Amino acid sequence: MAATNIGMMDGAYFVGRNEILAWINTTLQLGLSKVEEAASGAVACQLMDAAHPGAVPMHKVNFDAKNEYDMIQNYKVLQDVFNKLKITKHIEVNKLIKGRPLDNLEFMQWMKRYCDSVSGGFMSNYNASERRESSKGGKDTNRRASVPSHTPAKSASTGHKAQASHGAKRASGQTASAPQRSAKPSPAPANSGGPAYDEQITELKLLVDSLEKERDFYFSKLRDIEILCQNPEVEHVSVQAIQSILYTSEEDAQQQPPALSPIMEASEERPKQEMAHKRKSISDLDECGVSSSSRQRLSDILDVQLCGSPLTSFS
């Protein structure tokens, strides 16, 4: 389907974290507070079951997956469903199971885009709690999901009452001490931002982390090229050496062994050239008829020079 090949600039990847969480909790009757809680793969499996009822063997899905092995088993179930439905989406399992917020957010954004394209955004006839009963840990998940559903309402009502009483106190204080308030304005409440501001701060931190990682990646490339060009032993830097540094991705650098640097090649060829120069000097003395003892002393001096000894400066 067209939704399986959406690009990174598609509007699906600009859906906010709060909207994604609200969609997951409404569709699957869950109480997720972070996108990272979907890293086990069980949520993605049930979202596919909601989009294609009966296509996912829910008895193989593990909602209590805590280690990487159990998480990978969930993603294997999801990959089998993708293959059955001929969905060509590549699942980056190694990144998702690490629980990084940005990777899981992007995958859930894609899941929402796909489910909306299949069902038109409406899956009202899907009974998520009943479908989870056959899954491992599904009953415990249903119990945990039912507990927080009453807690936010209670806290919200308490918060409204506190704000109402606080507003009444402020209103009464305005009539009594208007000159004092004009001289010194009352500070804003500590919780005036609310969860929306906290969510925006989290998203900005994730964006900063992503940009810093990309900056460090390209800076390391520039640093490698700078070291290569500043080495005095390399007279001519080949274009291939620079291209190999520029076009090597982070995954290629981890999988492939490092290529032989031109600096190392030059440092290995230098002793060979100096030894050849020494042999040539001794052969020239043979042609001039120099005695063997003199040649031996000259050979010793050349050995000292090749070693870089400071004693040769006094000769």
Automatic annotation (TrEMBL):
The keyword Mitochondrion does not apply. Residues 148-160 have a biased composition (Polar residues). The keyword Cell membrane does not apply. Transmembrane segments: none annotated. Its main location: cytoplasm. One of its GO terms (cellular component) is spindle. It comes from the Eukaryota. One of its GO terms (molecular function) is microtubule binding. SUPFAM superfamilies: Calponin-homology domain, CH-domain, EB1 dimerisation domain-like. InterPro entries: CH_dom, CH_dom_sf, EB1_C, EB1_C_sf, MAPRE. GO terms for biological process: cell division; thigmotropism. It is found in: Cytoplasm, Cytoskeleton, Phragmoplast; Cytoplasm, Cytoskeleton, Spindle. Residues 14-116 form the Calponin-homology (CH) domain. Keywords: Cell cycle, Cell division, Cytoplasm, Cytoskeleton, Microtubule, Mitosis. Residues 129-143, 267-276 have a biased composition (Basic and acidic residues). Gene3D superfamilies: 1.20.5.1430, Calponin-like domain. Residues 182-196 have a biased composition (Low complexity). Residues 186-255 form the EB1 C-terminal domain. Residues 129-196, 266-296 are annotated as: Disordered. Belongs to the MAPRE family. This is Microtubule-associated protein RP/EB family member 1C. It comes from Miscanthus lutarioriparius.
